[in-house]
Design a protein that fits this description.
alpha+beta; 8 helices; 46% helix; 13% strand
């Protein structure tokens, strides 16, 4: 804890993220599967992950949470910016901030340093630095730097400074509701070439990936047919034909 304090790991201290992915993959893929079964199960695994991500996005967008803390304005602002899971981790900070009190303030050339402690205990205190020019908040507990979620000390200072909304600087892009949209837009801009040949290369690369996916689907569909009812599936050196059983796509040589 001493060495990782102040460094962002998103709350992960071990290989729990990889272990979770391996555990989920183990529900679909087993040692007795052949190559065809592995391809089928792997695509089922990918679809399951995409389904879980879609459900998580839907839960973050659809519906409105009931405001529970006394700080309704800050809670409403956080609910609009953060994803549902991150907001549920941040909401307890709003209630705990009500038990904090600003004891003193020290003005410097670049920042204002506030001393914050509990209302019933002034011996334990934290220092929160506020940079007015850039609207940056830094706390001595380093929770924001470690987890990416504002601590209750920063929230108490926001209340003291009469903030009605959570500053966007306190909401990491990866924890925001529009993180996926920004990521897709950024990737699209990076893949957009400035000449026509580059556009054709990108389109050809996307077509190859899409056609490969459809090919594997047809390969699995062919081997799942009963004996004597297989569809035409030929593989020659110069010609590769795939049956057009899916009305949503066509195969080009």
């Amino acid at each position: 804890m001493t060495h990782i304090r102040g460094h962002f790991f998103g709350g992960f201290r071990t290989t729990s993220r990889c272990e979770d992915l391996h555990s989920m993959l183990g529900e679909f893929v087993h040692s007795h599967h052949n190559l065809r079964d592995f391809v089928e199960q792997f695509f089922c695994y990918v679809l399951e992950m995409r389904s879980r991500e879609t459900q998580s996005d839907m839960c973050s967008v659809v519906g409105h949470l009931v405001l529970q803390s006394p700080l309704h304005d800050l809670e409403r602002s956080a609910a609009k910016l953060q994803t549902r899971k991150i907001f549920l981790l941040f909401r307890p900070m709003l209630s705990r901030a009500c038990t904090l009190k600003v004891r003193s303030c020290t003005l410097t050339l670049t920042s204002d340093i506030y001393t914050i402690s509990r209302s019933d205990n002034s011996h334990n205190y934290w220092h929160v630095s506020y940079y007015p020019e850039d609207s940056i908040f830094k706390c001595s507990c380093l929770r924001m730097e470690s987890l990416g979620i504002p601590c209750d000390h920063i929230v108490a200072l926001l209340v003291h400074l009469h903030f009605m909304e959570i500053p966007t600087i306190l909401v990491l892009e990866r924890w925001s509701k529009n993180a996926r949209l920004k990521s897709n837009r950024r990737q699209g801009q990076q893949q957009q070439p400035s000449h026509e040949e580059g556009v054709d290369e990108v389109c050809l690369y996307d077509d190859i990936k899409l056609n490969t996916y459809y090919l594997m689907q047809e390969y699995a569909h062919y081997h799942s047919q009963p004996v004597g009812q297989e569809e035409h599936f030929s593989l020659d050196e110069e010609e590769f034909q795939v049956p057009l059983t899916d009305p949503y796509y066509s195969w080009h040589e």
